[in-house]
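Form 7-S
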Amino acid sequence: MTVARTKEYLTGLLKELLKLPKETEWVEFKHDNKNPELIGEYISALGNSAALLGKQCGYMVWGVENESHKVLGTTFNPGSMKYKQQEMESWLLQKIAPKIHFMFYELVFDDLPVVILEVQAASHIPVAFDQVEYIRVGSYKKRLKEFQEKERELWRIFDRVPFEKLIAAEHVGGEEVLKLLDYPAYFDLTEQPLPEDRAGVLTRLADDELITKNVSGRWDITNLGAILFARQLKSFSHLRRKSVRLILYRDNSRVETVQEIEGVKGYASGFSGLIETINNLLPKNEVVGQALRKTVPMYPELAVRELVANTIIHQDFGVTGTGPMIEIFCDRMEITNPGVPLVDTQRFLDSPPRSRNEVLASFLRRVGICEERGSGIDKVVFQTELYQLPAPVFEQTDLHTRAILFAHRDFKKMSKEDRVRACYLHCCLKYVNREDMNNTTLRERFGIDTKNSAMVSRIIKQATDLEWIKPYDATAGSKAMRYVPIWA
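Output:
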């Protein structure tokens, strides 16, 4: 669903809607009805009905007679209308859940004013207005709960149609497809030669289901194609908030922002540029070795790359109004994605990966943007140990998942929580690599001298007391003692 709705596009859309023999479950014609409550109910009904019928959008049109479809014109002016001391559109946004995209368009047709409301089809869950879900039954608007078979079918559709296969823009000409998608980046990443003609390019894009040919002979761009290779994500209205936001703060709080950058390109075509931008913004450390001074990044590039790829892949696209976010502070880096994790955050390192967006993940693995299945978090933990950094944190909020990398901190400045968390993740890493964790391996992880091994023993005891780790064989002697995660 592209943002750019030109006069020509809207005129063509209206002509197509007027050709319909009668009102359908995804199109409603009105003359001058301006009741905001009624409009809200129709947004719910049209969004749900469009999803049920496999349409990208539902439409409500003012200025057209219901039965004859004759254009009469309308006095409805959504841009200037207020309701309950608010702008009507703002009030409607507050009442719609989840916050799907809808937009009012005004045009003049045969010298008569017409308004078109375009409503994005529901995805993941039914759309409700003021906590009530509606559906169209024939040409009537009804409460969804009154039609249980339609409700069941709607949920079946949500379950079986992944985000990647939904349509981002429909009825697009071949030339327009190539304007919207960065097809040279696609051929570069997939290491294919660029075809000599447009038809060959479109065929290859269709082979990877980035676009599909529709019944009219034109093209539909899938969400997969748009989210990976959009030249500008804002060209697809329901994806504009899914661009990656990169924020640099002055110090360790969010009080003062130094720089904020919002991604423009699709995830695949823009990934290398995103990583380069992050690395340029990250603080650097200067180290001196054998009389040579060199600058090294504060965080391992491989760990940063893997966490950024993970936040893109594992986000929940059904959480609207938010997208992946990378925040850089003086002492840490936080990487957040919409959606709660599908596995326990304490089991990220060992659990078989589960992704909401397997088609997206598979493509990004194929072009080398992310690691092979299940190896990413292992590498993140390994890299933080190699760089002698505090252990990363993986946490869940109400609607998001967050990974946090910390800048270098001397052992003596680490809190008890830092040390125990590092002990636990070290134990997990050793376990999944079929290796033993003991006092020696943990001492080496912290860079502690042999003579201070008692300090490490205290950390192990604290982790054991908190039931994060346990002895593999409780009867073994102290020098032979080795440990495994509590869940092993």
